[in-house]
Each structure stands twice: as structure tokens, then as C-alpha cells.
Amino acid sequence: MVQWFRPELIFTLDIYSFMQRKHPQTHLGWWRFQLYEGQNDIEFILDFNDLHVGSVIAKINGKFHSAIDAWINLNFNFSPLLDVLLTVRKPNNEPVDEIPIAVKIKDEMILKKYYHDIHEDQKYTDEQQRPFLPVMHEHKLKLLKKIFSTFTEPQWKVLDIGCGRSLFAEIKANWPFHIFAGDLEYPLIAMRKKEFPQIKWLLMNAISLPFKDNTFDALFAGELIEHMPDPQNALLEWNRVLRTKGMVIITTPNKNRLSNYINKYERPFSPDHFREFSLEELKNEILPDAGFTVRKATGTYLELLLFSKYAGIKISSIREDYLQREGNKNKNIFLMKLFNRLGTFVPSHCLDLVIIAEKNKVPVI
Q1: For residues 321 and 347, what is the distance between their CA atoms, to the nearest angstrom?
Q2: What is the DSSP letter of 285?
Q3: In sequence order, what are the residues at sequence separation of 6 or more whose Cβ sits closer than 8 angstroms to the Cβ of residue 247?
Q4: pLDDT for the residue numbered 249
Q5: Which domains are present in the chain?
Q6: Following DSSP, what letter does each residue of 121-150 receive, concatenated?
Q7: Residues 6+ positions from 311 with CB-CB distance below 8 Å
Q8: Of the candidates 352, 223, 241, 235, the residue with the CA atom closest to the CA atom of residue 298
Q9: How far apart are CA 246 and CA 360, in angstroms?
Q10: Under 8 Å between Cβ of 72 and 55
Q11: pTM of the complete model
């Protein structure tokens, strides 16, 4: 329910790539609608199979309305998540109010192209040479090295799914156990096979694994479960290929990280995350339902420098982390490293979770 009283205000539905508001590069378009004075009950129907003024229809107070004006970017590249902004402006374009809504797109072809582009451009580790993500990545590698170093049995088989470049290879070249690493990107797999022939590289889908039941002693899913359109089925498949008492190691963004907790607002960390989980959800619901028991949980980074940003005519009510925004500079690397260590001790509100769980049963489906 949206309530605005002055009829001269302009109501627009604005759509961008998630967390990337640059016009026109990441701007899909805007659709403008006429509101009535007083209270308006609004629903939207979005159809982007063809891009035109009729791609967005508004149902206002029970009646369907087409946009009275629109601007559309026909060269827009879709991503799994979109930022849909319900904006109200004065006739001089001065902002009055803005309501953000995240919209998920599950089209298989869009997802495949998006992840292909990520691997091709190596966007996970570059981020325009800003230090925040590399510093957090380095801290995460230290945590994982400590975990993987407990795997000392030479006969063990360990599966790295959705592996990308494989963190096993990034941590060190050789391990005492057998590593199987799989992804859907053939050029990446072929390249890494030449660089690390001691690892068995495979082309495979993380939700339909080409292995028999009870094949592996451990399974690593790094920053993967949040990308799954159906995470529960993915976990059941991972359970299937693990032996009883086998371990699954999962890293994933924390839905209940400090910024979301303080803002009382669930905002995904990245534009391609279909669903993020809190530690409590994973520990008490998601993993137990798939036949796992959480044995240990730790994490990375605690967002302690949250601030409210000046936006247009008012101070935004959303508090953002300084070190991920304006403070994402080399001079603040010391603070980034400190806050990463603090996140290890406060996993329930850290930014990224590292979870070790044990297979205790085969769920009845």
C-alpha cells in the first residue's frame, strides 16, 4: 500500500542492475504512472520477453493502467537480480521518496550468460583494484587452509563443486588427499587442468553430480548455495554423494550480517544471490532438513563502521558499511584485516559464514 497525497507528484518504476545504478549502462529503463490523490494500492506485472512501454503494467486500486511515459534501454544486459525502485518526484525531478525492491530472474539462459561473463572477466577478484574483497578473500583462505589441513588421510576423496578456479589450488599446489573439482565453464576447467594436473578437473553441474552414492569423504561448496534457485535440492544431492559422517564445508554470505540486522532489511550482498541464509537458518533448519549436523561455524568481517548516507533531500535511513563504500581504499587495509578477525568470533552477525557440517543421515524424500 502506497500513500501519497499531492496529485502533482510523479510516480515512476525505475529498474537497474542490482546495486549498480549507472545511467544508461546498467539502467533497464523507467515507466511512469499517474497516481490518484490519497491512498493507492499498487501491484505490478513485469514481462521482459519484449522490451517496450507495455513491459510494465500497473494495477492501481484494482484497475489496470499502462505507463503514461517510459524510457527503455534495448541494450540492457540482464543479471539474476534487479533493483526495482518505486520513486516519487516533484515535477522538477526533485526526489520525495524511494522504495527499493529486489526482483529475481531465474531464466536459465540469463544465468548461464551471467556466470560465463564473470569467469571470463574474473570479476570476483578484481573489483577495480579496490582492496576490500581481496582482503576478505585472503582471510577466508586462511580459515579454509586450517580446515582443509585437518584432512590428512591419503585415501580421502574431496569434491570441490562450482569450483571456479578452485580455492584448493589457490591455497597451495599439493594436498595429501584426492581432489575432484567441477564447474560448468569448459574454458576455465581446461585452463586450470593444464596449470594443476594433480587435481581431477571435471565439467559438471552442482545440482546433478555424475557420481555414485557415498563416493566422497568431504565436499566443499564455496560461495555457491546462495546462487542455487533450489538450495534444498542441491543440499540433498550433496548429501547423496557423501559417505556417512562425511563433511560438507560451506562458505556463504550471512543474511543476518550486522548491516542487515541494524537496518532490519534483508539486502543480498551480490546481484546474483537468489537466497541468502542466516547462521540460525542453516544450523537449525536448512542443513538438518538435508541430513546434516553443523559441527562448527565461523566467519569473516564484522561491519562496525556503519553510517547513514546523505541522499538527495534527506539522510537515508539505510546505514551502509564505510569500508565497503567510501572507505574502500588501501589506507584502510589495517582496519579491514582487524574487522575480518573480529568476524571470526561473532559468526551470527559476520558478513560471510564458514560452516562445517557432518552427514548424519540420508533424508527421506
Answers
A1: 17
A2: I
A3: 217, 218, 219, 295, 356, 357, 358, 359
A4: 98
A5: 2-105 (2.60.40), 111-359 (3.40.50.150)
A6: HTHHHHGGG-SHHHHHHHHHHHHHHHHHTT
A7: 95, 98
A8: 352
A9: 8
A10: yes
A11: 0.72
Supply the pLDDT for residue 111.
65
Q: What are phi and psi of 163, to 5 degrees?
A: -70, -25
Supply angle C-alpha 348, 161, 175, rounded to 5: 95
Q: What residues contact residue 67 under an 8 Å CB cut-off, 6+ apart?
A: 31, 32, 33, 53, 54, 56, 58
Q: What is the DSSP string of 29-83?
A: EEEEEPPPSEEE-EEEEE--SS-SGGGEEEEETTEEEE-SEEEE-TT----SEEE
Residue 123 is placed in which grid cell? 570479476
Nearest partner of 249 among 150, 154, 122, 339, judged by Cα: 150
- The secondary element (H helix, E strand) that includes residue 116 is helix 108-121
Sign of CA dihedral 358, 267, 184, 365: positive
Low-confidence ranges of the chain (pLDDT < 50): 1-6, 123-127, 311-314
What is the per-residue pLDDT for 127?
Answer: 46
**Grid coordinates of 121:** 572477466
CA dist 185 and 203 (Å) reads 7
